[in-house]
Design goal:
- The structure is a single chain.
- The protein has 1 helix and 28 strands.
- It has 2 domains: 120 residues, S-adenosyl-L-methionine-dependent methyltransferases (Single Sheet); 220 residues, Jelly Rolls (Sandwich), CATH 2.60.120.
- With 349 residues, it is mostly beta strands.
- The relative contact order is 0.20.
- A hairpin with an 8-residue loop joins β11 and β12.
């Protein structure tokens, strides 16, 4: 009764052509909360290590309607120079880390997408999303730097006295801002696109800036230095990275139903191993590296990736599995070892 069910927790993804670059979400926030409500203490979205901190009273920003995207509301700053912070969960992204706690390893890339606009009636001098090191300080400001009313960025950690912006842009217009962060040996590179056709554009950027080497593990949204009224709106924050490993997820993991497991971003024709546990998230040392599963760890029969580097498998979920948590991870055999996928801990609904 349990073996068919255990298959379900083990793989994931979205079918895509072989040539497509896949991306792994690090963190996402759509502000899908009760409206109106203060942002402090809100715990939605995915990929976060903690709830929103929005001042001692939790009231330096609020969630209201309408949002800029189709899900939930948007966050609006309420207090002049009063920020709202949220730490990013680094679990499973060791290869992106510079040291144990911060994103920014050399030769890695992270994308930051968000929608923003200076609120109607606001005369805030600046507003944006900052990349922070928790309890250390601000590193990079993304949005509308001080004294500009245009979209751009400001290299805070590098000691730059002013921001750089896209001439002719306007922070009064709702805009989709896409930043590509390239962490390089020495100085780093940031590119900005305003309202591109996708979340990962390949066209020439609207702004291309070299910044001092930096790392981060937290974001902050903030605006201020107003004369009469404060307010900047934010929505649909997405932080992701090009995937360099197999990706898996589970669709429709519902007791008494048929779930779908899909693995993508593997090498065509490669052997994919899938392990699972129902006892915990590890870590456990194996010949393939540390995995996010606790003993006993069981292994499914090896799977072969198709010509697109994908494995697709529909599996029935027993009614008896309701409420059970599965801890699972896959690995693509390569060079005597394995390239481990992202790990999952999924509860059967």
């Amino acid at each position: 009764m349990t073996r068919p069910f255990l298959l379900l927790a083990l793989a994931a993804g979205l079918a895509a052509p072989l040539s497509a670059q896949h991306y792994e979400t690090i963190a996402f926030e759509s502000f899908d909360y009760v409206t109106p409500s203060f942002l402090g203490g809100a715990a939605g979205g995915s990929g976060w290590a903690d709830v929103w901190w929005s001042g001692n009273n939790g009231d330096q920003a609020q969630v209201d309607l309408p949002g800029f995207d189709a899900v939930g509301g948007k966050a609006t700053t309420l207090v002049d120079n009063g920020g709202s912070w949220r730490e990013i969960d680094r679990t499973g992204f060791d290869y992106l880390l510079s040291g144990p706690y911060e994103f920014g390893a050399d030769n890695t890339t992270i994308w930051v997408n968000f929608r923003a606009q200076r609120s109607a009636g606001s005369d805030d001098d600046y507003g944006g999303l900052s990349l922070y090191t928790k309890f250390v300080g601000e590193k990079i400001f993304l949005g509308s730097p001080s004294f500009t009313t245009e979209w751009g960025l400001h290299d805070i950690a590098g000691g730059s006295l002013s921001g750089e912006t896209v001439t002719g842009s306007s922070d009064a217009a709702e805009s989709h801002l896409v930043y590509r962060l390239d962490f390089l040996p020495g100085d780093d590179r940031i590119r900005l696109w305003i309202d591109p056709a996708s979340a990962h554009p390949s066209t020439t950027a609207d702004l291309d800036v070299t910044v001092a080497d930096f790392t981060f593990n937290e974001i902050r949204i903030q605006s201020g230095s107003s004369i009469t009224a404060t307010g900047f709106d934010f929505d649909e924050i997405l932080i992701d990275t090009p995937s360099v490993r197999p990706i898996y997820s589970i669709g429709n993991l519902v007791a008494g139903s048929v779930a779908t497991l899909d693995i993508i971003n593997a090498t065509p024709g490669s052997t994919v191993l899938i392990g699972y546990s129902v006892t915990g998230a590890g870590p456990t040392t194996t010949p393939f590296g540390d995995v996010a599963m606790s003993p006993p760890i069981l292994q499914l029969p090896p799977q072969t990736a198709d010509v697109n580097g994908e494995v697709h498998l529909p599996v029935g979920v027993p009614i008896s599995a309701l409420g059970l948590t599965l801890y699972t991870q896959a690995g693509e055999l390569s060079g005597g070892g394995a390239i481990l996928s992202n790990a999952l801990a999924e509860v059967v609904q």
